[in-house]
């Protein structure tokens, strides 16, 4: 499907989504964080879309908000989209886990928790993936103060 | 006392934890696995990562795009050229820079040489992990020839840094074509030895056949890629699906085996070495004339936006995500490493199996820890 067809199809599933193609080769979908899990389940189970391959999962700090970016692909049709979700809560950011939809999200969500402090509901084993458990702060956030001078400026 | 009573009262069984690594030779570097075992049966596996974490993604936010290229060959050091290639492709894509055909062909040849070098090393280590020490020496004999070619052309044997955004650092060495051809003649004779020595060995077959099975459906759900995915019959070759460089100009087959066990993952890599040789043979006599690089500005500033590029490394799909705000550094850079997803599926493959099979299964994943830890 082309990006336009994908947009029409996905808009028929959930009409509260924001679509944009600006400055990206993929169709970008921004979803409300409460609708995230429902949308992901639908994107995977719909026979015309069948987004069964989560090929990249990125945490990002937009400054004000924290976000997670899901790159999805369909093995059958080979079309790709990007789903974005944001949360404004920097103290206690919580999103729904998608490990039950794509198992590969397990380590990726642990990585995002490690670097950005985003917690995931219903994750089987949420803990820091790379850093030690007693690490202070979340290093890939833009407001992280690198007291130990780990990354030399 | 009846016989039953003795078993119940005197022999209490319980699950316990065993550490494998971080210094275990079969964990290929510094991976620590926490095993929950009941007798010899594995109940659960929890990898403990981060022993070699260097915060490469954080460093990228500080560095210029030319500098980032040099960081990436420290991730999967056995596919260093392909990692560099991935970053250069992403930068070129965002700048809408079209490199010359000469660059594309040379990059493809070296990518495939890197793949053969990586697979030969894996083959040697795989044999050693299951107890055949000879394979290690044979593999290094053949890999040495490729490293010599790299040394002549790039000046380095492992972390090559031959790619730059816009092309190549310098032209190929005058001996390059001759030596690659010599290698191909040599390796066509030697690769059948790999089969006669290890693949057809009865002990090896028994250690790998039906061991560590990953089903087609699980392979997709776990997002595995590369030979691990193709061993489960899941077509995932980025070179075919989202073709880049000169891969659309050459004929080669995507190797697929459907059993999903350790042996089929092994066979995929052996067959891939034949395919890589096929690709190199088609290109080596047809390197077009042309410039080796398109000039770029000394300070590369990417336009505002998000850019993504995936390539096929020896281990699977490497993705590079750049979020740029229009400055000389990326706002956020993410590497989708093939090893992390492949390791994620390890639990699925080995739980319920014997602890001895774990080593064979892990060897068939071909893990490079710096690629996982980044």
Fold topology:
The complex is a heterodimer of chains A (153) and B (374).
Chain A: H1 3-13, E1 18-20, E2 27-31, H2 36-45, E3 53-61, E4 66-73, E5 80-87, E6 94-96, H3 105-116, E7 119-121
Parallel strand pairs in A: 2-5, 6-7
Antiparallel strand pairs in A: 1-2, 3-4, 4-5
Chain B: H1 3-10, E1 16-20, E2 32-38, E3 41-48, H2 56-60, H3 65-72, H4 80-95, H5 101-129, H6 134-154, E4 163-164, E5 167-168, H7 176-199, H8 202-208, H9 216-221, H10 227-231, H11 238-241, H12 262-284, E6 305-312, E7 317-324, E8 332-336, H13 338-344, H14 346-350, H15 355-365, H16 369-373
Antiparallel strand pairs in B: 1-2, 2-3, 4-5, 6-7, 7-8
In short:
The complex is a heterodimer of chains A (153) and B (374). Chain A is an alpha/beta fold.
Describe this structure in words.
The complex is a heterodimer of chains A (about 150) and B (about 375). Chain A has about 150 residues and is an alpha/beta fold. Chain A has a domain at about 5-95: NADH:ubiquinone oxidoreductase Nqo5 subunit (Beta Polymerase, domain 2), CATH 3.30.460. Chain A has three helices and seven strands. A five-stranded mixed β-sheet of chain A has the order 1-2-5-4-3. In chain A, strands 6-7 form a two-stranded parallel sheet. Chain A is elongated and about 50 Å long. The mean pLDDT of chain A is about 85. With about 375 residues, chain B is an alpha+beta fold. Chain B has one domain: Cytochrome-c3 Hydrogenase, chain B (Orthogonal Bundle). Chain B has helices at about 5-10, 55-60, 65-70, 80-95, 100-130, 135-155, 175-200, 200-210, 215-220, 225-230, 240, 260-285, 340-345, 345-350, 355-365, 370-374; strands spanning about 15-20, 30-40, 40-50, 165, 165-170, 305-310, 315-325, 330-335. In chain B, α5 runs antiparallel to α6 (about 135-155) and α12 (about 260-285) runs parallel beside α15 (about 355-365). Chain B is globular. Chain B starts with a helix and ends with a helix. The interface of A and B includes residues 52, 107, 115 and 132 of A.
């Amino acid at each position: 499907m082309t990006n336009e067809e994908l947009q029409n199809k996905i808009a028929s599933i959930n009409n509260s989504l924001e679509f944009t193609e600006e400055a990206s080769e993929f169709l970008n979908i921004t979803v409300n964080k409460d609708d995230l899990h429902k949308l992901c389940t639908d994107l995977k189970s719909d026979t015309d879309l069948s987004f069964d391959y989560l090929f990249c999962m990125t945490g990002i700090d937009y400054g004000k908000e924290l976000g997670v970016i899901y790159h999805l692909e369909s093995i059958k049709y080979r079309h790709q989209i990007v789903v974005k979700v944001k949360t404004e809560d920097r103290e206690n950011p919580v999103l729904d886990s998608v490990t039950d939809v794509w198992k590969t999200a397990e380590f990726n969500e642990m990585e995002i928790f490690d670097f950005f402090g985003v917690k995931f509901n219903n994750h089987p084993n949420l803990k820091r993936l790379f850093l030690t458990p007693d690490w202070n702060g979340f290093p890939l956030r833009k407001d992280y103060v690198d007291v130990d001078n780990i990354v030399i400026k | 006392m009846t016989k039953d009573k003795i078993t119940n009262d005197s022999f209490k069984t319980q699950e316990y934890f065993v550490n494998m690594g971080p210094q275990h030779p079969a964990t290929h570097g510094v991976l620590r696995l926490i095993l929950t075992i009941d007798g010899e049966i594995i109940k659960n596996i929890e990898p403990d990562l981060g022993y070699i974490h260097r915060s490469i993604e954080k460093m990228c936010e500080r560095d210029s795009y030319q500098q980032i290229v040099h960081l990436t060959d420290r991730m999967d050091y056995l596919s260093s050229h392909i990692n560099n290639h991935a970053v250069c492709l992403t930068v070129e894509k965002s700048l809408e820079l079209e490199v010359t055909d000469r660059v594309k062909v040379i990059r493809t040849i070296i990518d495939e040489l890197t793949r053969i070098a990586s697979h030969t090393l894996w083959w040697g280590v795989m044999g050693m992990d299951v107890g055949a020490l000879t394979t290690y020496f044979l593999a290094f004999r053949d890999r040495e020839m490729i490293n010599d070619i790299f040394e002549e052309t790039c000046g380095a044997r492992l972390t090559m840094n031959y790619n730059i955004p816009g092309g190549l650092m310098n032209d190929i060495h005058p001996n390059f074509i001759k030596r690659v051809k010599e290698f191909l003649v040599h390796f066509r004779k030697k690769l059948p030895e790999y089969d006669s020595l290890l693949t057809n060995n009865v002990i090896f077959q028994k250690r790998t056949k039906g061991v560590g099975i990953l089903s087609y459906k699980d392979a997709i759900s776990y997002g595995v890629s590369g030979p691990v995915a193709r061993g489960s019959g899941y077509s995932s070759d980025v070179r075919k699906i989202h073709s880049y460089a000169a891969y659309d100009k050459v004929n080669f087959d995507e190797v697929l085996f459907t059993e999903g066990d350790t042996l089929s993952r092994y066979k995929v890599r052996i067959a891939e070495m034949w395919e890589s040789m096929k690709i190199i043979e088609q290109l080596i006599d047809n390197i077009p004339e042309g410039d080796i690089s398109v000039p770029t500005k000394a300070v590369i500033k990417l336009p505002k936006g998000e850019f993504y590029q995936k390539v096929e490394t020896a281990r699977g799909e490497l993705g590079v995500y750049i979020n740029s705000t229009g400055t000389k550094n990326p706002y956020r850079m993410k590497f989708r490493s093939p090893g992390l997803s492949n390791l994620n599926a390890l639990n699925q493959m080995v739980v319920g199996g014997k602890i001895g099979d774990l080593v064979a299964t892990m060897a068939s994943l071909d893990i490079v820890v710096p690629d996982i830890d980044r």
